[in-house]
């Protein structure tokens, strides 16, 4: 009732109710009519069992098998805590609902692997969808809004970001849509989603942007757009539009205890999609930019130790030898503040900025080092292939290492890194540092999550390769009565800077 009274008041006072930054849209009919011809249904067929893609998700993604029950596969962590899963399976009920122009699975003798959505980005027949919609398919069909079915081929795919580019050969130019700037989209703005839920054909739903910067814990985006526009199984690969008719995202996943829409859907931002689509269009495969650094977030303690005026940026943990960053003389401990004119708020935004950069193009990096801001120019490179494992060469027997020693004030026992300790803790052979062999329970180190097998690479910005290096650095910090010790630590799955508050004695 209150909403009705508010709407009546708006009409009486002459406040426009059409789409605007402040008003409620009076309807979406005109916009939907303009956009529906650019949205397609994507059907793929396969005779065998679906395969898993390289990103770890199910091959069917927001599509699914013809005999699917509609249940979502929950990640173990989510299931253990009773949290509704992020549903990327979107299983289709194809036995009871086939959209206009859909091939009859029984007639063809093939299993219908998946149904999804897509959208036309070039009148000549280029179509964007999610990779999991067509992963594992040996035949792909695109059904236009008028029911015309066209055979599609894969131009390129990016399994990490779950994006695929298809091509069809129409008899006439198709109506295409364009990408908008997802970075400019704000929480609370109206959006509409168009797709192929449950194989029913073109369907329009509306809602608002509910949140930004959602991280689903996969290898893809860390900046998913969350929307309450109804997104169901089969919407995957379809566009999320703003009120200007620009694509600001690809609808990819839902958060649901039942497998159906509960008003929490996720879309890959168009700023990320557009860069990948351009790479697929030009090279037939993803060609992300690479700078050769591993980064981590800057904590308030680290920012204070480095004398930074605010807690921002991405702190360099490792620099790849021979990479662009190494060539520009960046080093661990530098904090990247701006990349090619864009402010780096935290570690999540930085990798995407680099990946979206053009290979071979220069980029200016502003960073914080030694209490002041500096800059460097480097040339973005392509991501190098994973190194092949080389056979271990026999080495002469090393002299007996010194015994492990306690690192004062940190609750750690450290030792020189030996082949025996490398084997015991599964530490890579090319690691140079001092290994933690024991962590005292409830100590400073234990509270920060350090564990036996972690390797200390630097203490307060200085590399360490022997126990003596660690003791010398700690003694100097203790003499200066420093209340923070900054360690660069290589763990089992990453390398990061850790700030400790030492419990000095005496």
Could you explain how this protein is built, in words?
This protein has 506 residues and is α+β, with helices and mostly antiparallel strands. The protein folds into three domains: 29-284, Beta Barrel (Thrombin, subunit H); 289-382, PDZ domain (Pdz3 Domain, Roll), CATH 2.30.42; 405-500, Pdz3 Domain (Roll), CATH 2.30.42.10. The protein has twelve helices and 28 strands. The chain has helices at 2-12, 29-35, 76-80, 105-108, 131-134, 270-283, 300-305, 324-327, 349-355, 419-425, 444-447, 467-479, and strands at 39-46, 86-87, 111-122, 126-129, 139-143, 149-158, 163-167, 190-195, 203-214, 224-227, 239-241, 247-255, 265-269, 289-290, 293-297, 314-319, 335-339, 342-343, 362-369, 372-379, 381-382, 405-407, 412-416, 434-439, 455-459, 462-463, 485-490, 495-500. Strands 22, 23, 24, 25, 26, 27 and 28 form a seven-stranded antiparallel sheet that branches. Strands 1-3-4-7-6-5 form a six-stranded antiparallel barrel. The chain has a six-stranded antiparallel β-barrel with strand order 8-9-10-13-12-11. A hairpin with a 7-residue loop joins β8 (190-195) and β9 (203-214). It starts with a helix and ends in a 6-residue tail after the last strand. 41% of the residues are buried.
